[in-house]
Amino acid sequence: MHLLLPEPAAFRRRSNVQLGAATGAWYELSRRRKFGALLMAALAVGVLAFRRVNYDSAVVMVIETLGCIALLTLAAFAVRRTAANAPVQPLTIGLVAGTLALPWVVDWLARGWGYGNGMEIVMLSSLAWGGVAAAVTGRQPRTIGLSVVCSGFLTLFTTFISDSSTATWFTYAWGMLCSWWLVTNHWERVEACAASRVTVAKTQRLLTIVGGCAVFALAATMFSNRLPVLRQLTTEMMPTSGGTGSHDAAARSGVGNGDALVAARKHASSFGAVETDLFLDSDQPSLFDVFSEEFGEPMKLRRHEQAQALSPEEILSQDGKFAEANRSSGTQPFSTNRQAPRKRPPQVNDLASEALMFWAGEPGVRLAVERYDQFDGWEWHKSPTRKPGAAPTLVDIEDRAWFQPTGSSVQNSLSPFVGVVPEALKFTRYREPIIPTRPGMQLWSIDQLTRVDFFSLSADNCLSMPSREHVPDYTVVRFVNSQIDLERLESLLESCAPGMPHANLSAECESGIARWSHELIIDKPRGWEQVAAIVEGVRRSCTLDRTRQFPDHSSPLEGFLAQRAGPAYLFATTTALMLEHVGYKTRLATGFYANPEHRFRRDKELAILPRDAHVWLEVNAGHGYWIPLEPTPGFLQPRYRTSWWYQLVKARTAIALSGLACIGFVVVVYLLRRLLFEIACRLCWPLIALLSDRGQVAWLTRIIDLRLSLVGQPRSPGTIPREQFRQLKPELPERLETALRNFWQESDRLWFGGERQMSQEGRRAVKDLWRNLTTAKLRDGKKSPVAT
Questions:
Q1: pLDDT tens digits for 585-598?
Q2: With contact defined as beta carbons under 8 Å apart, do 463 and 370 qualify?
Q3: What's the confidence (pLDDT) of residue 57?
Q4: Which long-range contacts (CB under 8 A, 24 or more apart) does 703-706 make?
Q5: C-alpha angle with apex 670: 666 to 673, nearest 5 degrees?
Q6: If you average pLDDT over residues 426-435, what whole number do you get?
Q7: Whole-angstrom Cα distance, residue 430 to residue 475?
Q8: CA–CA distance, 236 with 773 (Å, rounded to integer)
Q9: Cα–Cα dist 15/412, whole Å
């Protein structure tokens, strides 16, 4: 920390120089203390926002944040304009009070929009902004210390009530900042009182801070799960937090929330697996009705084949009626020749009443209900040779009954499914016995259900309740699912056995599929690169049109290949045929898409609506592993887990190009550093003019130091700016010399004469030096005596 202020001519004695140095050091100390407290308060606001972002409205949070920042900015300017010993102005008090009250006002308005928070969250938000206000406007050590106490309490409390282990990193970061704040405040006070001139080794301090942070982060990573105090941060602390361990039947939210808390008493997403006398006013659609509503009714083909004419006497009378399939069944095909869906009436924006079910898990996933593996050019069928899966196995985990597929190989060394992801489905209007599931399911559970015969797995790995007409309303099914590891998937696809192309395709379809697929995989090695190239090619070159019809073509597939537009099931069908043409086995999957736009207000749940019925495809990676693929534009791609090393290898070309671009940018900036610096000074002057007179003097002193450094004449430690100019003796215009003399005099008056404001000559001198004492004038000046 260099003493940047000019040495006063009237105070040459050592004692007075020491007094000036101590005053300047105390100013630096106070500024650093406020800055550290402000960082910790901002971190507390951040951890509260991290807690609220999963259930609160983003618009409400942005309005609250911008409003508080605006009020605190005005309060900071009001404090700047107030004398050091003057009492706090009423304007400052009003702005701080407005900051504390704004979260309550915003919450009151948000409740009128259908949002809003509980009283405890609003209180925490008010406390968070109160800590920021104390750091911004405080001029006494006790006020700044109060800000640190508020931010520390808020950070710890919010971490305890959070159900995400990521929140603990905010606590670690706050601890690091607080340690730095306490240590620097103590030693800077000692330095300010011990010496008249203090020279700080900036490189040594920077290395010490970086090294200390690295050691702290390493220690936190190694011991966070071993020490009882730190381990407690990642477990449940509050009744509302849910937590990650035990299951509480009366919990309000989180991973371990209770299934039997309420039964649709307020809205359809709040329920448990209990009986209720409240029923939703709806037609309770079946799965077959849902797909018909979304994609249209399948068209009945009239096939004229050779037949023998019969006399009336030979016609046998048939009593009874033919059964009409009005539900989804294990043998019903999925037709690609469908009528345009009926125009639905305007949708009421009520996710609770429209939803078939609620998905508590990762957004953008596909929940399968049926899979088809044979295509005849018009319809997808299920292979009749496949055998149903074995009965599931009951396992007991932490006094809770869980079911798993018998002989599951999800977690073996070859499996592309890795990790553990807790998720859940909550049913309301869903009227089918099939339970929608995502690939990589390891376990599932229904509270207090221990009978294995309640479930069965079909040959295409679809979970169902065969003994019931449909999954009971208000049932909560919990899952333990997996993520897809892209590195393992690539190694499997490179050596997977080729699939057999589908038969009964027309010559036009076969030629179109062959030509298009080979265009997309040219020069691509076998494996994931070919699969990804075909999927991305279809997504990029085709348009989603749910109502597109193809009356001028012999089949919908031919029409899609010609027009490159159509509904989602033709995207999946075409991509599946293209992949099978180049040697990959595929199948069609139908089910539901967890649309991220259907997040249910403050809950961590996604409403699954009838219009979320979707069709996609899956590719066989070998060893019985099927991987979902999404060729339809507008839908999120499945997420794949990759290591940082894999990402670096795949992005090595982009990294190299980015590195070269950064080097070029740094070179250009270095060559133009003087010009860019002067442009920045010009742009920043309107902001500097808003500061107090002392602030303007301090900033101009720093700018002069930087300009001298840019021309190769940095100020040596312990040398004041006036002495530096005496040694350099640059030849400057008379106007700038006069401005320099006035600037030195005003600096002495402000910092050592007890004055609070500059004269008009001093203000003009500061403005003139800021704009016109440029690096070009300092560099081009000749050495000659300068009047002082």
A1: 999 999 999 998 88
A2: no
A3: 77
A4: 703/770, 704/769, 704/773, 705/4, 706/677
A5: 125
A6: 88
A7: 10
A8: 61
A9: 78
How far apart, in whole angstroms, are the C-alpha atoms of residue 138 and residue 152? 17
Would you say 572 and 617 are in contact if contact means Cβ atoms under 8 Å apart? yes
The token pair that represents 653 in the structure block: 């070309």
**Coil/strand/helix, residue 478:** strand
How big is the chain, counted in residues? 788
The 3 state secondary structure assigned to 20-36 is: HHHHHHHHHHHHHHHHH
Please, is 620 exposed, middle or buried when counting C-beta atoms within 10 Å of its C-beta (0-12, 13-18, 19+)? buried
Instruction: Detail the DSSP E strand segments found in 630-738.
Output: 640-641
Beta-sheet strand order (sheet of 366-372): 366-372, 586-593, 613-620, 626-629
- pLDDT tens digits, one per residue of 434-471: 999 998 888 999 988 888 888 988 878 888 888 888 88
DSSP 604-634: S-EEE-GGGEEEEEEEE-STT-EEEE--STT
pLDDT (0 to 100) of residue 188? 61
pLDDT in tens, 753-779: 777 788 888 888 888 888 888 888 888
Host H or E run for residue 423: strand 417-427
Return the pLDDT at 27. 46
Query: Using CA atoms, how far apart are residues 138 and 234, in angstroms rounded to an integer?
Result: 34
Alpha-carbon separation of residue 100 from 96, 124, 128, 396, 662 (angstroms): 6, 11, 9, 50, 44
**Model pTM score:** 0.59
Query: What's the CA gap between 296 and 347, in Å, rounded?
Result: 18
